[in-house]
Amino acid sequence: MKLDPARLEVMKNLFVSITEEMGAVLKKASYSPNIKERMDASCALFDWNGRLIAQAEHIPVHLGSMPLAIQVVRRYYSEEELGEGDQIILNDPYSGGSHLNDITLVKPVMFEGDLLGYVVNKAHHADVGGMTPGSMPGKSNEIFQEGFRIPPSRLIIGGRENRDIFRIIEFNTRTPEERLGDLRAQIAANNLGEKRFLHTLRKYGVEFYRTFTDEIISYSERRVRKAIQKIPDGVYAGEDYMDDDGNTDEPIRISCTVEVRGSRMSIDFTGTSGDRDANINAPYSVTLSSVYYAVRCVTDPDVPPNHGCYVPLSITIPEGTLLNPRRNRAVSAGNVETSQRVVDVLFKAFSKALPDKIPAQSCGTMNNVIIGGLDGGRAFTYYETIGGGQGARPGMDGQDGIHDHMTNTANTPIEVIESTYPLFIEKYELIQNSCGLGRNRGGLGIRRAIRILSDTAVLSIQSDRRKFRPSGLYGGENGMAGRNYVVRNGEITALPSKITVRLMKDDVVVIETPGGGGFGPVSERDRSNAEKDIREEKVSYDRYRHLLNDLNPL
User: Fold this and answer.
1) Whether the model pTM is above 0.90
2) How many separate domains does the chain show?
């Protein structure tokens, strides 16, 4: 049996729709604003061999780590050990997870006694224990400080909850009601995914399904290979730095070499700094996620995302480095911050081969803000990532105030924050002049000011690009660096990029996120675009007057 292109496309969209519906159920059923509003979660389907079939357009750093999670689950549990109705839970970064906040649920799909696939979702839980509220301390140096670890384990057995594991989770988080509610939302999402998966198998038959899976994976592989062949053969290097590791002021190098030969691509991170006594270490699965994302961007983003996209790749990540750390190293910021820098480094390398395709550097950080404590005796944990400026693109300006690259979450509405937590949002605005100018300008960063209404609270920040600014490309200016500070009684106290600090009532936490780099010389910027920037107060007149001497005041 061979599928014609039309049927292949229909079936591809059918499986993608299952993952999207899973995401809708997870969002609707969850308890925490982090999932219900921001949709900090992802869903995907895998076949009987653990190969990715389809995924929703959710969070790249989640989705790219899922294939490794499935491999680990398959090593822990043979097909004979898994039964109908089982669901496996894990969050251990050294067992296929990303960081401890991200809890993965895997449900095998059984049909007529055979294992024919897996439905999977991953969601960021706002607190999983550890040394600080929110489980993402600014300064941690071993994973045990970041929360509870769950190796692949049966959370659901034959459709029934394993109460032992539920109790362990309940007793090891500051917000047990929210955690268990989110966990049950994940269970419901997988149940829905299994239901739709089984309906498809009954409607089209197992043979048809197996044929489709093999063909869609082969199709994606052919498309990616064809795209790689369009990249000039050669060796391309990239290097960039993290500001620091949170415990020292030393910049941390990330280095890669990309080699293209015909329809294959090899990526080698030899030369990257060693793993750190800090939390910016990126687990192997997270580094893979970053590579998968970057390669899809520069090859053919419209290729159906599945196992076939990654077959042409050879990836080397030396053990004991920042991007493949030794076991038990802290990793909470590696997932959210280091992953972004890996993309920057890869794009630097690709820019030498694809000068008309690669954008200037974007914000380069997820700007993680975690505030937790007690409000009237009840524990709360607020978690948010704040967007920044997108790097200018070869044909257009960068977007203002968005999440970019390895994150894809939504914005938590101010009304939800203020009705859920003892917090008041005083400012939420774009930062004028934060962009790098160029023929195309970068996007603007964001300023968010949060007033503490509880008597005390603990603030943790995991951010970057506070020292090294997002780079412009081909003559474009660098974007503005980010800034963190606290205002207490009118006094401003600057904060480093990674920190945990105690707060008092009426303290105001201010996060200013980086702007994107510019693309091409600013002297080539279209006059009408410059005038529009000034009218919209995105760029000041003085800044353009210095660069464009003939621009008249408006």
Assistant:
1) yes
2) 2
